[in-house]
Design a protein that fits this description.
The protein is an all-alpha fold. The protein is built from three helices and no strands.
């Protein structure tokens, strides 16, 4: 399914830009430092050096409701953010 619109529109365009500029600002990357922005973007794919990275996929035929249910899995089912797994 399409994840992003062909063109962002308000208020999402302004929010998206503010989020991106804010992130790069905190990292000391200026608006015109395209190479540094790309390098930071690439870090998304090495999971910021985390010891484990997880990618979840859902068959698009299962529709939106399945994804919503996965987002609301109670904390005790995934360790509550402790990294300890199920209680």
């Amino acid at each position: 399914y399409r994840y992003y619109p062909d063109q962002f529109f308000e208020p999402y365009l302004t929010r998206r830009r503010a989020n991106g500029f804010g992130l790069y600002s905190v990292l000391g990357i200026g608006r015109r430092e395209v190479d540094r922005m790309r390098a930071q973007h690439d870090r998304n794919f090495v999971f910021f050096d985390a010891p484990v990275g997880m990618i979840f996929t859902v068959d698009r035929r299962l529709n939106k409701g399945v994804v919503d249910r996965l987002r609301h899995v109670p904390a005790e089912h995934h360790g509550g953010g402790t990294g300890q797994g199920p209680a």
